[in-house]
Specification:
The protein has helices spanning 2-13, 20-39, 42-58, 69-94, 116-134, 138-149, 154-161, 165-182, 186-189. The chain contains 9 helices and no strands.
Length: 190
């Protein structure tokens, strides 16, 4: 399968620009998944996917055939997602909050069979989880997502974040510790 990716890359570099679509189709699901887990927003994740594949296309001549295309585009996507999170954070600090209810920022689809108490409890848990994830730095959140949701190795996390493997371990550790503290109230709910 990877040999196929390499032959497609060679075809694109030889002038067959339409061949890049096969790479997009093959890798877009994994790129979307990691983008969504980092950004927490479907629209932002879609934007990250588009940006990652656009950057990949523009820089395809820098792709080294000794690595896998999937890993290369995945790293580009992680960088795009981190850039977006940084941009959003800067925008949020410049914007004045106007009595906004943080639970209204999420679209929630309720199970029609669930009773009101269960729905309220689910909303409280989701809000607590979202607040706990927001307290993480971008590096911690990405490291946590890559390790515990994407099942990536410490070396892969370090490569994606451009940090030393030991720093990647520390980022995952700090994220887990912060999340445990942030989610501690769930122990009393359950």
């Amino acid at each position: 399968m990877e040999e196929n990716d390499h032959s497609i890359v060679r075809a694109v570099l030889s002038g067959d620009k339409e061949a890049y679509g096969a790479l997009v189709v093959r890798h877009s699901h994994a790129v979307f998944r990691v983008a969504f887990r980092i950004t927490g927003d479907e629209a932002d994740a879609e934007e990250v996917v588009q940006e990652a594949f656009l950057r990949g296309y523009q820089r395809l001549e820098t792709f080294e055939s000794r690595s896998q295309f999937g890993t290369w585009i995945y790293r580009i996507a992680v960088n795009c997602a981190l850039n977006m999170m940084t941009k959003r954070k800067i925008e949020a600090t410049h914007q004045i909050a106007e009595d906004a209810d943080p639970t209204q920022q999420q679209v929630q689809v309720a199970d029609t069979a669930a009773d009101p108490e269960r729905l309220l409890l689910s909303q409280e848990i989701e809000a607590l989880q979202a607040r706990a994830m927001q307290r993480l730095t971008a590096t911690e959140r990405t490291a946590f997502v890559l390790r515990h949701m994407e099942d990536r190795s410490t070396e892969e996390i370090a490569a994606a974040l451009h940090i030393a493997p030991n720093a990647a371990k520390q980022a995952v550790f700090r994220a887990v510790q912060k999340l445990r503290r942030g989610l501690a109230p769930l122990r009393t709910i359950a």
